[in-house]
Amino acid sequence: MDTQKYTEKSLSALENAHSDAVRRKNSELSTVHLLSALTFQENGLVPRIFEKMELDSEKFTHALESSLKSLPTLSGSSAGRVGASGEMNQALVRAEDEAKKLQDEYVSVEHLLLALTEEGRKGPAGKILAENGVTRERLMGTIQDVRGGQRVTSQNPEETYEALEKYGTNLSQRARDGKLDPVIGRDDEIRRVIQVLSRRTKNNPVLIGEPGVGKTAIAEGLAQRIVRNDVPDSLKNKKLVSLDMGALIAGAKYRGEFEERLKAVLKEVVDSDGQIMLFIDELHTVVGAGKTEGSMDAGNLLKPMLARGELHCIGATTLDEYRKHIEKDPALERRFQQVLVDQPTVEDTISILRGLKERYEIHHGV
Known about the structure:
Elements: H1 8-23, E1 28-29, H2 31-39, H3 45-52, H4 57-69, E2 83-84, H5 86-101, H6 109-117, H7 124-131, H8 136-147, H9 163-167, E3 168-170, H10 171-176, H11 187-197, E4 204-208, H12 215-228, E5 239-243, H13 245-249, H14 257-271, E6 276-281, H15 298-308, E7 312-317, H16 319-326, H17 330-333, E8 336-340, H18 346-364
Parallel strand pairs: 1-2, 4-7, 4-8, 5-6, 6-7
Antiparallel strand pairs: 3-5
């Protein structure tokens, strides 16, 4: 087995499976050890796959534990010397074949899981999967949903799967679920944002105002209007997603890792055929965000997509930050149309407080 061909998560799963076999004093490293390691891997892809497949986790866990307890054990000086079973070696060969079939560069956890389904009812792991309705066809469909048509081209591919879900907040869904506060007294600004979004060119509004004046609330107000269908036909049924730049940058320690994450997010937006709009709070952070030696910053990744009209974006920043960062980049600046957001008047502030009063009373029990 060439470890260079395996992703970080698949190597981690194999190590955990081996440790489990040693701890249980089993005579061999079985495919059940591997299935167990994949199923309970922290931040792993397989738990997400099983969740999407709506597996009965209690029944599945019970079947795993029963199978592990039935495996032969060693005692004395032989305990701890664990070699891979014949089934395990065959599963690893099949996993490498699965990676080739999917045109992936590395063997990932989904390839290991697919290899275990090929074991059939004759093998211990294959039997558990079959009895719980995890067929190859069903599993392949779920994997394709999670991967979104992406290939495994790095040793950490999970970072780019379901990127929008991981690095963004669906404001439209939050509005639909009633989790957003009502937006009061910002009708003019919301109308202006809708007007800019409906243009043919320069149709990306940037909300400019002092911290705390309610720029994010305007984006939330737009999401509520989209859900109510109180928008022009061109914006109906659109999804507004707030992008978390901090989460995108966090933990991106390797060169190009931030780029890969952002590209995955942008690919999902492009693949939606204009159905997804991005809201980027603190827009100025995209200039230089994630930039390391030999890599592009977020602004340079966004510019060509904004120019081609593939990306619909709403930004928010302060006037000082806009002048300092965005205006200094003419290619980025000309893609955005300013929408100034002033602090509310005394009358508007009173209306806002009256509108939110009931929610605060319920929250504080007064």
